[in-house]
């Protein structure tokens, strides 16, 4: 976004007969920006969509675990939600990564309940 002063200058220069290109050159801003603010001096800012978390389905389980024991550690929570089907499948880590890293269930860390 640009300042109100710049928007005012855009309209002032246009009233004096300057073209969008020359206004943009003079104010050192993009000519599309000049066109946009000439069409609508106060464009509204769009509302952002709330991004869902991959932990949302496990929110109640995590909350319950924290209420039971406030000292519960993140690895314990992760182990419990993995038992319920959580998988961290992000684009940095292919699904075959646990096998590639030599991970197997027998050697996994055990956290008592």
Structure commentary:
The two termini are 53 Å apart. It is built from 6 helices and no strands. α1 (4-15) packs across α2 (20-27) and α2 packs across α3 (31-39). The protein is rod-shaped, with a radius of gyration of 28 Å. Residues 90-104 have low confidence and may be disordered. It folds into 2 domains: 4-39; 56-107, no CATH class. 47% of the residues lie in helices and 0% in strands. It is mostly helical. The chain has helices spanning 4-15, 20-27, 31-39, 59-68, 74-83, 97-100.
Short synopsis of the structure:
The protein is mainly α. Helices cover 47% and strands 0% of the residues.
List keywords for this structure.
113 residues; mainly alpha; 2 domains; 6 helices
Share in helix: 40-55%
Poorly predicted runs: 90-104
The gross shape turns out to be rod-shaped
Distance between the termini: 53 Å
Mean pLDDT value: 79
Count up the helices. 6
Supply Rg.
28 Å
Find the structural class using helix and strand composition: mainly alpha
The share of residues in extended strands comes to under 5%
| Main sheet properties | none
Strand element count: 0
Tell me the count of domains: 2
Tell me the series of helices and strands, N- to C-terminal: HHHHHH
Oligomer: single chain
């Amino acid at each position: 976004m640009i300042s109100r002063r710049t928007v005012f200058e855009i309209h002032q220069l246009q009233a004096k007969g300057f073209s969008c290109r020359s206004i943009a050159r003079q104010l050192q801003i993009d000519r599309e920006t000049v066109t946009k603010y000439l069409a609508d001096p106060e464009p509204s800012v769009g509302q952002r969509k709330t991004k869902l978390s991959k932990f949302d389905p496990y929110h109640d389980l995590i909350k319950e675990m924290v209420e039971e024991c406030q000292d519960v550690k993140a690895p314990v929570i992760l182990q419990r939600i993995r038992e319920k089907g959580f998988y961290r499948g992000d684009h940095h880590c292919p699904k075959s990564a646990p096998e590639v890293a030599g991970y197997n269930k027998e050697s996994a860390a055990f956290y008592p309940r």
